[in-house]
Amino acid sequence: MVITGIGAVTPVGNNAADTWAALIAGRSGIGRITRFDATGCTAQIAGEVKNFEPTKALATPLHPRGPGGEPVTAAFNGKDLKKFGRFTHLGTVAAVEAYADSGLDAHRAGLDANRMGVNLGVGLGGLPEMEAMHDTWKAGGFRKISPFFIIQIAPNLLAGQVSLLLDFRGPNMSVASACATSGHAMGEAAAAIIRGDADVMIAGGAESTVTPLAIGAFAQMRALSTRNDAPEQASRPYDQDRDGFVLGEGGVVFVLEELEIAKKRGARIYAELRGYGASADAHHLSSLAPGAEGSARAMRAALSRAGLAPSEVDYVSAHATSTPGGDGEEAAAIAGVFAENKASLHVSGVKSMTGHLLGGAGAMGAFAAVLAVHHGIVPPTINLANIDPACAATGLNFTPNTAVKKTVRAALANSFGFGGTNASLVVAKI
């Protein structure tokens, strides 16, 4: 199956084009937290989505129910906005962009809505709304609890809202597998097409957990960077001075389509989704297995399903969170899987610019891989000033600080999560 539409709302851009431009320019979207007062917390920085307008009118109205149906003029209207959590706002706007970008809307009369499905994941769900509603209940009692609260926090409501808005009546589901969530969502959406359950799937994920409890909890785990005086330099995968990840938020969504249907309607094809691998470390709840052994199995499974040799892959969009342990373990696994072509392979970590989108991280990594294939540009790992000797010993090229123009025949994107869950995706030129 192929990717025919892309949408993104991220810390570096409120649409896919701006996000890609920022990535290849090496521009950071990380800054001081504005969504709450982080005074007293050791970590006071995050990758927040800025100037976000979920009710912004679309440049061209969409007609997913045909010319006689009610048009979609915006992802949300002002009245409906309060019904949903911020992760649903972010993910729905990205999904609407992906759908519009795919060109499917002009062909809806000839497409069966029953064979168009949605798989959009979220890792933690409506945490901001949970925190706020708890405060409301404590202050005002049960009568002050919003009747929309469950809709605001339920993880599958993102997929549900997109299905409702765009009239996708096929498989409708949500994956929750920590930071591998949207990688799994994309792989399982592809599997639905392979099984014959759908011809088109909207897939990806979103997250919005820049909240006191999330920041505070990750800080208490000593997982977050405390480089509060230089936020844009805080996320620094593979650098010997990295001190933890930076939490981010956003939504990244793709339209996956059966190849022959896409060709028949003359769709613009970004890349083919060739392979998907999933595995479990069965080692530790929050740390990679030694040498990222489980991650390596996911990469090899994705390559095997893609029918590609490692030497046919030119770029790895790494999970690369900027944590002291994880980066080196993943690098060792990549070096092992791609031992035969390390000299020509490029590796990079776009979390250096966006921060860690948790449930949206897998799709964010896939975004970099897909557009690297499509445009022939590898985005950089920024803030890589002094490479960690252990990472350097792998012999990998981590694409430090500056994007590289090159033909990318195929790319692999990794995403790994708490609980030892791993997802790898392989995308390639048609």
Structure characterization notes:
This protein has 430 residues and is of the alpha/beta class. It folds into 2 domains: 2-264, Thiolase/Chalcone synthase (Peroxisomal Thiolase, Chain A, domain 1, 3-Layer(aba) Sandwich), CATH 3.40.47.10; 276-428, Thiolase/Chalcone synthase (Peroxisomal Thiolase, Chain A, domain 1, 3-Layer(aba) Sandwich), CATH 3.40.47. The protein contains 14 helices and 16 strands. The chain has helices at residues 16-25, 78-81, 86-102, 127-140, 149-153, 157-166, 181-195, 212-220, 259-264, 293-306, 326-337, 351-354, 361-375, 389-392; strands at 2-9, 31-32, 45-46, 57-62, 72-74, 116-121, 172-173, 200-207, 250-257, 271-280, 315-317, 346-348, 377-378, 404-405, 410-417, 421-428. The protein has a 10-stranded mixed β-sheet, with helices on both faces. Strands 2-3 form a two-stranded antiparallel ribbon. Strand 11, helix 11 and strand 12 form a beta-alpha-beta unit. Helix 7 crosses helix 13 (361-375). The N and C termini lie close together (10 Å).
